[in-house]
Amino acid sequence: MCGLAGLFRKGGASAEELESLARAMTGPIRHRGPDDDGVFVVPEAGVALGFRRLAIIDLSPAGHQPMTSESGRFTLVFNGEVYNHHALREELLALGHRFRGHSDTEVILAAFESWGIAAAVPRFVGMFAIAVWDAGERSLTLIRDRLGIKPMFYWSGGRDFAFGSELKSLAAVPGFERRLDRDALASYLRFLYVPAPATIYQGVRKLPPGHLITIRDPSVPLPLPEAYWSALTAARDGASTQLVSSDEEAVDRLDALLQEAVRLRLEADVPLGALLSGGIDSSTVVALMQEALPRPARTFTIGFDRPEHDEAEHARAIARHLGTDHTELRVSGADALKVVPLLPDMFDEPLADPSQIPTYLVSALARRHVTVALSGDGGDELFAGYNRYRHGAGLSRRLARVPASVRGATAAALAAVGPGAWDQVASVATRLMPRRSRPRLVGERLHKLARLLRANGTAARYRTLLSAWDRPEALVPGAGELGDELDGILGGSSPVELEERMMLADQRGYLADDLLAKVDRASMAVSLEARVPLLDHRLVEFAWRLPLRHKIRDGEGKWILRQVLYRRVPKTLVDRPKMGFTVPILDWLRGPLKSWAEDLLQPAVLSEDGVLDPGPIRAAWTAVQSGRSPNAVALWDVIMFQDWRRRWRPTT
Hints:
By secondary structure, this protein is an alpha+beta fold. It contains 30 helices and 17 strands. The strands form three sheets. The chain has a six-stranded antiparallel beta sheet with strand order 2-3-1-9-8-10. A six-stranded antiparallel beta sheet has the order 4-5-6-7-11-12, covered by helices on one side. Strands 15-14-13-16-17 form a five-stranded parallel beta sheet, with helices on both faces.
């Protein structure tokens, strides 16, 4: 895992200037690669490639980047891993290639030599962001892996085209303007992240997952990125070739694919472990990892001092059963709070997923012992783990049958009573129930139901389920919202089942732009490589071939993934309500973070440069502080932007 950055300048530049620019761009991302660095320049072409290396495979100088192919035609910088490089190496040896070392980087270059870039990339199994200079074609190509596990940002301005693993690299380029994109801000306030291909800055783009873009003249308008793979195509192809098999046969096939995906991700010339929460996804990965290793796997968990956020006991039980070498760190609220000041540098594009804090903490714990850690991300999106797929889809179907006038009147009645008052009613009505069985956040859920009742259409209802703010554009004067794919996906007919269309929408947006961005930035902040075996693209394609009954059964998601885990871990250790991996934001905003948040949410600070309308934000702040609303995530959304804004000072 590494950091990369570079420049393509029309008209060329001196070697000294290009090298200085490349080092200025890679300096701010040293955390992504503390082991080595390198620069490659072509003065007459105006090309500079910069690299920071976290050495994982082939720690010798033979793994140094930037690396040039045997013929001298291709030079690349590469962030990530191509896990099938041994199989590709055998093919390429048969074609006459010779290798100096044993890195996957050499294999990528030889593949480009033999098959060309466009034909080679679909052969790669892995996570990667690649920038490659083709001296023969005098072109620069950027490539991003299929699911968007590794990041790639790019910008075109005047005669310069620049790219990097993080936005802070682009900010080091002379002439780069940190000009705020108000429409992107409005979308961020809805989703807690900026949807690709946009970024928080005007004129800066994320390369979409499964795409590449080739630049031949940096001074002309950029071509559109080209897709070589997409979840949309995988879903539609899967729908047309559904798996016809018994339950046992389907579980056997998934089991074999999972074993292969985990096995491939165990190669490293440095210490390796896994992040274990005790949930279905991470427990499955760890069980398969332990099965494949000749020694106890290293596993890592953090425990919180608040029971409702603490999964450490469950992780400990899984680790004990599997026999892993387990490390657990108890984390207090004070420990977690210490992470908050680090967030604007860690996430140089605003991200408001509160689980960013525990993700950083568990990554920091693991990095004390290992350099690579497997994680269980992706299982919910592949195998229908979220409640919204099961309950949201059924609710959406039922609401579609209710006349708009009835929905509107019911919504008004529900919203007329504050969330706190609804909570009091629920507490009286359920006082005879066991405490563990009492419904939580009744008022918040009823108010969300009111918003769903007002929404017209499947896409609008799903957008409401995902939204921190109902009308985020109203918070940003003069802004609209970026277009999204929800109408096209959720309003379409393939896949047939609404639950699967919801999963597809998440795979196309939330997965890459929130979850994987969070894991990448949090883990790389401590120079830890995070690998995600559940997102092997062959597993994704197989999951789309599975009928919905293999994912949701008896009202429970991830049925087939559970069966794989049950072969290795007793049901009693894993069958429990989904807890989530987060922190008590509501309590923090009412307690230890109150004065800090109040400072960021002062009306004069909110309205600085006319970016935000303080009215609805202040009303939400007052409601949270008075106990009338538990919706702290909407405020965290604004606070994370404000804290990011204070650090990066965008122009408006």
